[in-house]
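Hi everyone,

Forwarding the result from last night's run.
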Amino acid sequence: MCLRDLRDRRRRRREAGGRRPGHDLRDGRAAGRVSIALILRRTRLEHGISQLELAGRLDVSQRHISFLESGRALPSRSLILAWMAELGVPVSVRNAALLQCGFALPQPDEDTQGAEATLVREAVRRTLEAHLPHPGLAFDADWKTVEQNRGARWLSSVVMPGLWRTAGGGGMGLDIITAIGHPQGLLSRAREPEATAAALLTQLRAETWSRPALASRVEWLARALERRYPGRMPERGRAVGVPYFSFVFDTEFGALSFEVMQSVFALPQDVTPASLRVEMWFPRDRATSEAMARHVPLAPALQVP
C-alpha cells in the first residue's frame, strides 16, 4: 500500500469518527451514536424526505447525512436544532436527541414562539382560571409573570399595594425578583419574612446554574435582603428542589395563610429551563379560604351548582 493510499484511509476514518464500521457498539459513546443515528434517520423517513433533499435544506453534504444516520459521525448541537426545526419534529423528540448527545436543552431565546407556545399559554390560562378563587400565576425563566388569575391579582393588591399600583395592577410582566426584594413588595406584610426570603433566595441561586442571565438580579436580591434583615437571614433556605413553601400575611382582612406549590407546565420529557412555571396558592385554613371566596367570586362559567 502506498503512502498516499494510507493517508486517504486515515482521513476517511477520521471523517467517520475515528472508528471502522462495525465497531460502533463497543463502548457507551458509540452506543450513543447508534441511538442518535436512529432518531435522525426515523425523523427524516417519517417526513418522506431523501438524504439529498435534507442535505440541501441544511446546507451540508449528503455524505455527512449518511454518516450521521449510520452512526459513523456525531451531529453538532446546532445541526440537531436545525434538523429538528426543518422537519417540524416535536419538542420531546428534539430534547431526546440533544440529551442523547450530551447537549444542553434550548434556553428561552432559542425556543420557538409559534402555535405550540400559544396553545400552552391558553392551557395555562384555563388552569389558573379553574383554580379560582385561590391565587394562581405563571412566570417564565426570567421570573417575570406571564399570567395571573383574579385571585393572584387581588392578593397582590392587598399584600403589596404600593408596588402593585406602580406595576399597573395588571400583573403581566411583573418582575417577581423585584417584588421579593422591594421594601413594599411581597415580603412587606409577611410573617417571618427572613425564612421565606432565604428559601426563595436558595431557589433562585440554584436556578442561576442553568440560567446565568439571572445572576446579577439574584445578587441584587441577596444584597437587598441583607440590608432589610441584617444578621437575621438564615444561612440556608429550604432544600434545593423542594417545590413548595408557605406564606402568612397580616392584612386588613386578617391573617391570610397559604401553601404555595410550584410546578412546570410540560410533559416530563419536554421540560427545559425555558418551560413556564405555574404557581398555585392553596389556603391553609378556613379563614383564608372564606376570605378568598368572599373577595374573589367565581366567574359564572366556573361556578358549581
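The first strand starts at residue 136 and ends at 139.

Cheers,
N.
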